[in-house]
Structures are given as structure tokens and as C-alpha cells.
Design a protein that fits this description.
79% of the residues lie in helices and 0% in strands. With 205 residues, the chain is mostly helical. It is rod-shaped.
Length: 205
């Protein structure tokens, strides 16, 4: 099996693991009497709680920095497990907590390749490429730093696209506050003086 095919196979296996994990969680959290997951539902936008949205934004913003730290550490001579442990206190809490969970599994004697799956459980699909790359490097002796550097470039591109999308949404989000703040001032400056003048003329008449 070629190295590229090995990484592809590992990524496919990790994707299947993520799908099975989320399906199990959905079945466990389904209220009594609710329709099964396959039942057609009325289409509508999915709104995540603001805490989850904020966590996802933090992860999207900080994940490229984690990959850069991993590249620098590996190029400096650290093993992948050491590099991930050294990066834990240097990244925001959502990433740091996932790395701490990885360290806890390694401390219990779990194999590094198996313990890495906790990153997918904690960080979601964004960690699939990293886990597949590290596992392939461990099993097949592939150079890790160049592959992770490519992942970091892709993560930075994704972060840039998300920032551009948020910037395009900003005028729409600001329209309501701007109108809400502008209308009262417009009424005070333009309409109230006219009303006062009209009332004054009526009294004089």
C-alpha cells in the first residue's frame, strides 16, 4: 500500500468513526416519543447554541497555530506525542483540553495511534487530517513535518474563508442597530422642530 493510499484509508476510517459516534449520541439524546432520525422533517436553518458557535470559532481560529507549533516542535527533534503535549499549554482551552485528554490516555498506557482518536472526538472533523497524517507517519515512517505544514496551510485558508464570510455578513447584522439608532435622532432633528413650529403657529392663530 502506498503512503497516499494509507493516509486516505485512515481518513476514511476516522470519518466512519465520527459518523458512528455522533449517530450514537443522537440516538441516546433523542427524547421519548420523538421521531427516529430517518423520519423526514420540515427543512429549516440549523441554529447552534451561542456557546457552541463561539467554541467552533475559537477552534477554527486556533487550529492553524496548533499545527504550526507541531511543525516547529517536530523539526526541533521532538516526537509527535511530545510535541502535542508541549503545545497543550500554548493553545486556547478547547484545543488544550483535547491535548490534555490525549496525554491522559497516553499516561494510562494506551497506544499513541489509538489515543489520537480522542482528538477527533473532541475537535471534530477538523482533526481528521492531522490524526491520519500522524498515524501514517508512525506506521510507515513518513516525514511528518512537511505533511503537517500542508495541513496548516489548508487550515489557514479555511480560517481566511470563514473570516471573509463573516465580513460579508457584517453589514446585514449592523443594519438593524444602525436603523434603530438613526431613526430617533432623525425624528428629533427633523420632525420635532416642525411639530413645535406647527403647534406654535396654531396657538398664535
Amino acid at each position: 500500500m502506498t503512503p497516499g493510499a494509507a493516509v486516505t484509508a485512515l481518513a476514511a476510517g476516522l470519518c466512519a468513526r465520527v459518523v458512528a459516534l455522533h449517530a450514537g449520541r443522537a440516538l441516546a439524546a433523542r427524547p421519548r416519543g420523538a421521531p427516529p432520525p430517518g423520519t423526514p422533517r420540515r427543512a429549516g436553518p440549523v441554529r447552534l447554541p451561542w456557546r457552541i458557535r463561539r467554541r467552533e470559532r475559537v477552534l477554527d481560529a486556533a487550529f492553524p497555530e496548533l499545527l504550526d507549533l507541531l511543525v516547529v516542535s517536530v523539526q526541533g527533534g521532538m516526537l509527535p506525542a511530545q510535541a502535542l503535549a508541549a503545545a497543550a499549554p500554548l493553545v486556547p482551552p478547547p484545543l488544550g483540553e483535547a491535548l490534555d485528554a490525549l496525554g491522559a490516555r497516553l499516561a494510562r498506557g494506551e497506544r499513541f495511534a489509538d489515543a489520537l482518536h480522542v482528538l477527533v472526538d473532541r475537535l471534530g472533523p477538523r482533526a481528521l487530517g492531522l490524526v491520519a497524517t500522524v498515524v501514517a507517519a508512525e506506521r510507515h515512517g513518513l516525514p511528518l513535518a512537511p505533511a503537517v505544514e500542508r495541513l496548516a496551510d489548508e487550515a489557514r485558508g479555511q480560517r481566511r474563508r470563514l473570516a471573509e464570510a463573516a465580513a460579508r455578513e457584517l453589514p446585514v447584522r449592523l443594519s438593524f442597530p444602525l436603523v434603530l439608532c438613526t431613526l430617533p435622532s432623525f425624528a428629533l432633528v427633523a420632525i420635532v422642530p416642525l411639530l413645535v413650529a406647527a403647534l406654535s403657529s396654531l396657538r398664535v392663530g
